[in-house]
Design a protein that fits this description.
The protein is of the alpha+beta class. The protein has 1 helix and 7 strands. Strands 1, 2, 3, 4, 5, 6 and 7 form a 7-stranded antiparallel beta sheet that branches. It is elongated, with a radius of gyration of 19 Å.
Length: 134
C-alpha cells in the first residue's frame, strides 16, 4: 500500500514539474548527475564507513526575470554506509526520490546562489551481511 502511495506522489510531482516548465515564458529542461559520498552517524558509538552512491535527476529551470529563476527537480539519490562487526561486513543501501524546489539568484558573472525546500521519499532500504539480504 505504501509503495503505491509513493508512486502516485512521484507521478503527481513529475506532472507538476512538467506543467511548470511548459507554461513558463523562458524555461529549460536539464539533466543532473553526480556521486554521493554518504555516511550514517548515531549516538551508540558504532563506526560506519562512507559509501559511494549515484545522484541522478531531471530539472526545470524557469526564468522569472533576468536575475531570478525557479528550479524544480526530480532526483534519485543512492545513499548508505558500510560497517564491520566480528569480521563481517554489512552494507546498508538506501534509495531516495527527492523533490527540491530551488529559488535561484543569478549573478552577472555566471555565479548562482540557490536555496529552497526539499521533500524526500525513502523508496528502498536494504542491508546485506555475508550474502544474507534484509
Amino acid at each position: 500500500m505504501k509503495a503505491m502511495v509513493k508512486f502516485y506522489i512521484v507521478m503527481a510531482l513529475a506532472a507538476i514539474l512538467i506543467s511548470f516548465t511548459s507554461s513558463a515564458q523562458h524555461a529549460n529542461l536539464g539533466v543532473k548527475g553526480g556521486v554521493n559520498v554518504y555516511n550514517i552517524q548515531n549516538d551508540n558509538g558504532s563506526k560506519y564507513d562512507a559509501k559511494l552512491g549515484l545522484h541522478l535527476g531531471l530539472l526545470g529551470h524557469i526564468h522569472l526575470d533576468k536575475e531570478w529563476a525557479l528550479q524544480p527537480e526530480l532526483v534519485y539519490s543512492g545513499q548508505g554506509a558500510k560497517y564491520n562487526i566480528s569480521n563481517s561486513e554489512t552494507k546498508v543501501n538506501l534509495d531516495y526520490i527527492n523533490f527540491p524546489v530551488l529559488l535561484q539568484y543569478m549573478f552577472d558573472n555566471g555565479f548562482r546562489l540557490q536555496a529552497g525546500p526539499q521533500v524526500g521519499f525513502l523508496i528502498s532500504a536494504k542491508a546485506e551481511t555475508n550474502q544474507n539480504k534484509i
